Amino acid sequence: MRILGIDPGSVSGAYGFISDDGVVVGDLPVADGNVMPGMLFNLVKELQPDVAIVERVSAMPGNGAASMFKFGRAYGCILSVLACAGIRTELTTPSTWKKYFNLPGKDKEKSRELVSRLFPTVTGIERVKDHGRCEALLMAQFWMEKNRDSAA
């Protein structure tokens, strides 16, 4: 099974990918603060996931209209690219997958610590700002564990 997790992120998004060949993490392709749909499409086609798990996001109180519009545009781009690539897409809320791993809601560092334990050889998570990569990878792991029997 090839599983792609995507954290749309509030500034720039990230992905985590699990397959029999290993684990890969990275940032979504962005230019001028916008997700680049063509480059994302190429990434998805290269990875060839069987399923994509995307964090379901919504507007947060206190965020400005311009930043929320930009965030929504990125989220829509991600879902559209996955649909155009013909990738089965599942949505999960932060509270659902974080509860599964017993992670506190706002402590991003705990996600990095957990990924380091679960995937000790993964690279690309060394910096504090790599927490989005870790969260994307944990969403993929969450889906894989929850669907282990039905995915076979």
How would you sum up this structure, described in words?
The protein is α/β, with parallel strands linked by helices and 152 residues long. The protein has a single domain, classed as 2-Layer Sandwich (Nucleotidyltransferase, domain 5). Helices cover 45% and strands 20% of the residues. The chain contains six helices and seven strands. The protein has helices at 37-47, 65-84, 94-100, 108-118, 131-146, 148-151; strands spanning 3-7, 14-19, 22-27, 30-31, 34-35, 51-55, 88-92. The strands form two sheets. Strands 3-2-1-6-7 form a five-stranded mixed beta sheet. Strands 4-5 form a two-stranded antiparallel sheet. It is globular.
Radius of gyration: 14 Å
Number of strands: 7
Separate helix tally:
6
Choose one word for the global shape. globular
Report the β-strand fraction as a percent range.
15-25%
Fraction of helical residues: 40-55%
CATH architecture descriptor name:
2-Layer Sandwich
Q: What is the distance, rounded to the nearest whole angstrom, between the alpha carbons of the first and last residues?
A: 8 Å
What is the CATH top level name?
A: Alpha Beta
| Biggest pleated sheet | 5 strands, mixed
What's the arrangement of strands in the largest beta sheet?
3-2-1-6-7
The sequence of SSEs as H and E is EEEEEHEHEHHHH
Q: If you average the pLDDT, what whole number results?
A: 89
Structural class: alpha/beta
